[in-house]
């Protein structure tokens, strides 16, 4: 197999801003470039997209990306274009002319990536040939499987792709898929020999917490008030819950919106866009919200109600902390939620599977052992040590040596030949004489009745802990039977010790865990100044703030304080195009901050003072270039100083800085574009031939002189 390492790293840095790959990214990309089919299971925020986006740059032709939602496509395409990668999406929201233009671009080989929903694939029939399509990526691949937690029938038509494009590699990607779902994905896509890559599901940066669901609204308000500037999502089961919460949160002074199926398309789209653009801080939503949203600075997720399965819970909490910084997942658990979810599952074609997975979610909520161990063991990954970043680890229950109890349970599972579910295992242990036990002659099993001194509920509590610790697992697609894992052998045959906890009393279950508060935000910190600059740029260019730079990149800028292009380019997340487009503005912001730090003990130099210095030099006849040389700054920085002061009402001959022709040109564009939001529409209107600084200055002149 060819080694692409030396070829890949320059592309990784130039287009994505990273110096090294994460987890299994390089191995996956190499397999795709070798035209191998692949199944990639990688957690949200783990870097799945790069696994097909980077190979697309090296392939001749277009990589076709199957994606479930229009909002997800737009988000991904905006991010790719911001990185200088030619990409587009094709869906029903576009006119026939727009769709034909995309087909023409693909014919000419101008697009590297083309996103499409499964329902719109038929419209791409003119280009579904191997001379045009270099690779097919099926994103959110769990949607193809009825075993998956978000099954979409439209995904089941995708099996024809391998038959139509037999030499084209197919890469299927998802954040959450248990064993049954993985097997189904391979079968449905007709790629049974695909290479499988199972990355670690461990999102160490997300703190996990479960609380009893009494007085949820008060608890949520307290939680939010301790995180005043952080973005978050609250998931609810009903529309009414979202609307009730929104009203109470808004009354507490926060920017919040509801998102549910009762809203029309335009209203839902506006809520999503306002959240992505940081105009709305909090969204209270039904589970329909958030699939594929690549917003990297969501700092917390709250589940007002218990999710119906662990896959859904894991995917939803994964929408926080995508930038790798600390995030918090808070789940409220109540018996009423369990009853309601059981009703929802009743009558479904896969009712038994849904109920079994709901029971597993309930067990997670009631657990008294490390919650991260439970999550990871569900997906077949086992931690040896507790995580230290969940409520159970931070407030641990009292444990006892439960080795003998564990051996009794595991031995019974083995003697039942791993063919029975939890209830039957417990019935055997307690020596039950019901029809199921007697008909199958289980009273003859050696462990029959050895646990009659322990109550049925306590046995269930212990069995759940063994599942959570990865000593046994539930085979959902095999009638929920209990099966032993490799870890069980050490307990059964090597006497490896097992620690168990006693069931918590009702009073202990109702106790609220100690609140972990976020650190107070320093409005004068470099991070906050860079964040404000990023927000301003995002408004001007009409793109989400995190597409400029994510929070982790800003944190690294704050730490390393790069004041040259060379140093700035070394920051993770800074690629060549972002260096060219944004580098100067961020470097100048960092320089201004660095200059003020030593002067704090004397007189703190305000940001406005530096603009006034430029203004005074301009007033005595110095040109922009001369001022820049005198002050050791870039001409664009001086121009920004003068534009800012002119906009604020300072007296100056503005036409020394911009021609009347340029002002008239921008005024005409403003009229034709019907007063668009941000600077990007103007930039595109002028076919990128007029600089942002000129457009910004012209708009200030138009506003101040009331030209229109």
UniProtKB/TrEMBL annotation:
Residue ranges of domain Helicase ATP-binding in the record: 29-195
**Which CDD domains would you find in this protein's record?**
DEXHc_RecQ (cd17920), SF2_C_RecQ (cd18794)
Tell me which domain of life the UniProt entry assigns to the organism this sequence originates from.
Answer: Bacteria
Q: Mind telling me which SMART domains this protein's record contains?
A: DEXDc, HELICc, HRDC, RQC
EC code(s) of this entry: 5.6.2.4
Q: Where is the Helicase C-terminal domain?
A: 216-369
Alphabetically ordered keywords of this record: ATP-binding, DNA damage, DNA recombination, DNA repair, DNA-binding, Helicase, Hydrolase, Isomerase, Metal-binding, Nucleotide-binding, Zinc
Instruction: Say if the entry is tagged with keyword DNA-binding.
Output: yes
Known cofactor(s): Mg(2+); Zn(2+)
Care to name a GO molecular-function term for this sequence? metal ion binding
Where in this chain does the record put each HRDC domain?
A: 520-600
Quickly give the catalysed reaction.
Answer: Couples ATP hydrolysis with the unwinding of duplex DNA by translocating in the 3'-5' direction
Q: Which InterPro entries match?
A: DEAD/DEAH_box_helicase_dom, DNA_helicase_ATP-dep_RecQ, DNA_helicase_ATP-dep_RecQ_bac, Helicase_ATP-bd, Helicase_C-like, Helicase_HTH, HRDC-like_sf, HRDC_dom
Please give a single GO biological process term from the UniProt record.
SOS response
GO cellular component terms, semicolon-separated: bacterial nucleoid; cytoplasm; replisome
Q: Which family does it belong to?
A: Belongs to the helicase family. RecQ subfamily.
The name under which this protein is listed is DNA helicase RecQ
What organism is recorded for this protein? Arenibacter troitsensis
Give the lineage.
Bacteria, Pseudomonadati, Bacteroidota, Flavobacteriia, Flavobacteriales
């Amino acid at each position: 197999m060819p080694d692409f390492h030396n070829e890949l790293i320059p592309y990784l840095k130039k287009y994505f801003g990273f110096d090294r790959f994460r987890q299994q990214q390089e191995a996956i990309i190499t397999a795709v470039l070798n035209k191998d089919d692949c199944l990639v299971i990688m957690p949200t925020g783990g870097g799945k997209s790069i696994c097909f986006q980077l190979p697309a740059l090296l392939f001749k032709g277009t990589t076709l990306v199957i994606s479930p939602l229009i909002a997800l496509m737009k988000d991904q395409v905006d991010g790719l274009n911001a990185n200088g990668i030619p990409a587009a999406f094709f869906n029903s929201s576009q006119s026939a002319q727009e769709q034909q233009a995309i087909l023409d671009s693909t014919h000419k080989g101008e697009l590297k990536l083309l996103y499409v929903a499964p329902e719109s694939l038929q419209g791409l029939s003119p280009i579904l040939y191997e001379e045009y399509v270099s690779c097919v990526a099926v994103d959110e691949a769990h949607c193809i499987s009825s075993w998956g937690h978000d099954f979409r029938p439209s995904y089941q038509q995708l099996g024809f792709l391998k038959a139509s494009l037999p030499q084209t590699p197919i890469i299927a990607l998802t954040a959450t898929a248990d064993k049954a779902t993985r097997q189904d994905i391979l079968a449905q896509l007709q790629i049974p020999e695909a290479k499988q890559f199972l990355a670690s599901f461990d999102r160490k940066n997300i703190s996990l917490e479960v609380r009893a669901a009494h007085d949820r609204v008060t608890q949520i308000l307290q939680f939010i008030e301790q995180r005043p500037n952080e973005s978050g999502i609250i998931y609810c089961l009903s529309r009414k819950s979202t609307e009730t919460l929104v009203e109470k949160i808004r009354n507490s002074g926060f920017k919040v919106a509801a998102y549910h199926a009762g809203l029309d398309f335009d209203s839902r789209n506006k809520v999503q866009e306002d959240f992505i653009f940081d105009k709305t801080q909090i969204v209270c939503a039904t589970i329909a919200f958030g699939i594929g949203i690549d917003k990297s600075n969501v700092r917390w997720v709250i589940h007002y109600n218990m999710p119906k399965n662990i896959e859904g819970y894991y995917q939803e909490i994964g929408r926080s902390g995508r930038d790798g910084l600390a995030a918090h997942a808070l789940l409220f658990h109540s018996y009423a939620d369990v009853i309601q979810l059981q009703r929802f599952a009743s009558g479904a074609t896969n009712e038994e599977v849904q109920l079994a997975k709901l029971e597993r979610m309930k067990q997670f909520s009631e657990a008294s052992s490390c919650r991260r161990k439970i999550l990871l063991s569900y997906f077949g990954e086992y931690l040896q040590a507790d995580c230290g970043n969940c409520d159970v680890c931070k407030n641990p229950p009292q444990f006892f040596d439960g080795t003998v109890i564990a051996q009794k349970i595991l031995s019974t599972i083995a003697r039942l030949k791993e063919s029975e579910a939890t209830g039957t295992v417990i019935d055997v242990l307690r020596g039950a004489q019901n029809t199921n036990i007697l008909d199958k002659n289980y009273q003859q099993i050696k462990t029959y009745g050895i646990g009659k001194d322990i109550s049925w509920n306590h046995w269930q509590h212990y069995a759940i802990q063994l599942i959570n610790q990865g000593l046994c697992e539930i085979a959902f697609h095999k009638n929920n039977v209990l099966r032993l894992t490799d870890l069980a052998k050490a307990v059964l045959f090597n006497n490896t010790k097992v620690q168990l906890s006693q069931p918590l009393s009702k009073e202990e279950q109702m106790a609220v865990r100690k609140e972990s508060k976020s650190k107070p935000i320093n409005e004068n910190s470099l991070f906050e100044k860079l964040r404000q600059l990023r927000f301003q740029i995002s408004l001007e260019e009409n793109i989400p703030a995190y597409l400029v730079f994510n929070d982790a990149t800003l944190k690294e800028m704050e730490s390393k304080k790069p004041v040259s292009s060379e140093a700035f380019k070394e920051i993770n997340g800074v690629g060549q195009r972002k260096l060219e487009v944004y580098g100067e503005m961020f470097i100048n912001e960092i320089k201004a901050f660095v200059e003020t730090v030593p002067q704090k003990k004397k007189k703190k130099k305000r940001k406005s003072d530096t603009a006034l210095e430029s203004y005074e030099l301009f007033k005595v006849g110095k040109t922009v270039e001369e001022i820049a040389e005198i002050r050791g700054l870039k001409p664009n920085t001086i121009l920004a100083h003068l534009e800012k002061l002119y906009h604020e009402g300072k007296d100056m001959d503005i036409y020394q800085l911009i021609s009347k022709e340029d002002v008239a040109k921008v005024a005409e564009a403003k009229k034709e574009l019907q007063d668009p939001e941000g600077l990007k529409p103007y930039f595109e209107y002028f076919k990128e031939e007029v600089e942002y600084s000129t457009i910004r200055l012209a708009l200030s002149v138009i506003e101040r002189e009331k030209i229109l």
